[in-house]
Design goal:
By secondary structure, the protein is mainly alpha-helical.
Length: 365
């Protein structure tokens, strides 16, 4: 029995030991992240009005600053801006109530017209459909006429709207008054926040950093709102030119849904198609309405928004999509509307804070 030949020794690269402090730090970060996401989801009723009020205060801070330069104190300027904006929104909503009610009342008739026009457009499939219906009648079991069907009707649309209004009214009032208080506090709130934040550096530097973030965020939000409002106005004019009834509602839908990336334009073009087919007699003219909106959307997304925002605040497409999924999962439809503004605010903050520049670069295109 011969001795085994010894294996040659191989020199493997040494794996650097992982310090226990690094493991503890990463574990703490993961636990903090999980707890934060859980808190955001569970405390939706509390956090959503606060976040919305903060975004509105950043959006409306520019006119308050303009009034302050005219020797109008922040408290008075904030009251003028907030309640003036609220009055404008209420007047616009009152003007849209009557068209909305008429649209709801005429929805069944419009859907029958849409069905008729779709059948006309799909004549090649009519023969196949009729054959399938005849086959279904032949193979169907006889119906016992003695059996009666019971239909349970739910609450009407008016009662449901009243219930939803009663539920959302406290949140709306919270957003309005919190927005006013944030604008009325002005520099005092930034100073208190600078004292609270655990940021290294002098208090004056921290205040300057918060002011820079506020100015950049305010310009971004104002530009975004202006772009989406322009999309709504142009869409309304296009629908009015085609002859679509309640064109103002279509414009409002286009402007609001444009805050939601990817999904918002799809919702708008679907609603416009249904409204046009149900309200315009000429089918070719009705199909012109969604085509015009598609032109408006492509112009805005490929030329206007990149020209006004893309150079100053480029965002990664993957980041926008992930932000949309995350905030929709956490806060539902309001989260989907606020996904892009919140992602942009995070990007602006990362660009102004040196320790977060790497995260800002990850959010870049």
């Amino acid at each position: 029995m011969t001795d085994a030949t010894p294996l040659p020794k191989t020199h493997l690269p040494a794996i650097p030991p992982v310090e226990s402090s690094t493991i503890v730090a990463w574990a703490a970060m993961v636990i903090t992240l999980v707890l934060s996401v859980t808190a955001m989801k569970l405390a939706r009723g509390l956090l959503l009005p606060v976040v919305l009020a903060m975004l509105l205060s950043l959006l409306l801070s520019a006119p308050v600053r303009w009034l302050r330069k005219r020797n109008i104190p922040e408290r008075i300027g904030a009251a003028i801006v907030v309640f003036g904006t609220l009055f404008t929104v209420l007047v616009a909503g009152a003007l849209l109530v009557s068209p909305a009610i008429s649209w709801v009342n005429s929805a069944p008739v419009m859907m029958r017209q849409v069905e008729q026009k779709v059948r006309l457009l799909s004549k090649p499939l009519a023969t196949l459909q009729s054959s399938a219906e005849r086959m279904e009648r032949v193979t169907a079991a006889p119906v016992d006429e003695s059996v009666r069907q019971v239909h349970v009707t739910g609450p009407g649309i008016i009662s449901r709207l009243a219930g939803q209004t009663a539920e959302t009214l406290p949140s709306v009032l919270s957003v309005i008054f919190l927005t006013y208080f944030l604008l009325a506090a002005g520099p005092l709130f930034r100073r208190k926040l600078a004292e609270f934040l655990p940021v290294r550096g002098e208090l004056r530097n921290v205040e300057h950093l918060l002011t820079a973030i506020e100015l950049s965020t305010s310009r971004y939000l104002a530009t975004t709102v202006a772009i989406n409002a322009s999309v709504g106005v142009v869409t309304m004019l296009a629908l009015y030119a085609v002859g679509v009834p309640n064109a103002a509602l279509g414009g409002v839908l286009a402007g609001v849904a444009n805050f939601i990336p990817y999904l918002g334009p799809f919702i708008t073009i679907s609603a416009i198609t249904l409204a046009a087919l149900g309200g315009v007699d000429n089918t070719a003219l009705a199909l012109l309405a969604p085509a015009l909106f598609l032109i408006v959307h492509l112009t805005e997304s490929n030329f206007v928004t990149p020209m006004l925002l893309g150079r100053r605040l480029p965002l990664n497409t993957v980041t926008i999509f992930l932000g949309l999924i995350f905030f929709f999962w956490v806060w539902g439809v309001p989260g989907a509307v606020l996904a892009v503004p919140l992602t942009a605010v995070a990007r602006i903050a990362c660009d102004h804070i040196p320790s977060l520049n790497r995260i800002g670069a990850l959010l870049d295109t």
